[in-house]
């Protein structure tokens, strides 16, 4: 009997004062998600977009499917990439990344 009284009292006070606390917690959760998940991902996407816009003929690239090649032509929404001698494929700009080999060589050249 005593346990039922405590349970009812705890439930009653939680319902009365829980309104503001709930909204404060929801706002804090949103702020945490924004600063730890959404904002870093947005920055990363902007940086990747800048890299893609800076790519030019002769750059070494890797496609999202793992195909390595050299850019032969830059089009509006795609790259023409040579993957072997006289083998050129067309790949969407959104699925092309700078080659890791090319990225590692760039800092070495800048230090000289």
Largest sheet: 5 strands, antiparallel
Which outline best applies?
rod-shaped
Number of helices: 2
Tell me the Rg in angstroms.
27 Å
Question: Strand arrangement, largest sheet?
Answer: 4-3-2-1-5
Low-confidence segments, ≥5 residues, pLDDT <50?
Answer: none
Derived from helix and strand composition plus strand pairing, the structural class reads: alpha+beta
Helix content: 55-70%
What percent of residues are in strands?
Answer: 15-25%
Average predicted local confidence, pLDDT: 80
* DSSP, total strands: 5
Query: Kindly, what is the distance between the CA atoms of the first and last residues, rounded to a whole number of angstroms?
Result: 83 Å
| Element order: H for helix, E for strand | HEEEEEH
């Amino acid at each position: 009997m005593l346990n039922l009284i405590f349970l009812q009292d705890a439930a009653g006070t939680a319902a009365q004062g829980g309104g503001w606390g709930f909204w404060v917690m929801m706002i804090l959760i949103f702020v945490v998600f924004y600063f730890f998940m959404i904002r870093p991902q947005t920055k990363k996407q902007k940086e990747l977009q800048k890299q893609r816009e800076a790519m030019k003929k002769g750059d070494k690239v890797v496609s999202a499917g793992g195909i390595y090649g050299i850019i032969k032509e830059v089009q509006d929404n795609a790259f023409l990439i040579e993957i072997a001698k006289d083998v050129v494929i067309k790949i969407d700009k959104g699925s092309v990344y700078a080659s890791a080999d090319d990225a590692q060589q760039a800092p070495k050249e800048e230090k000289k």
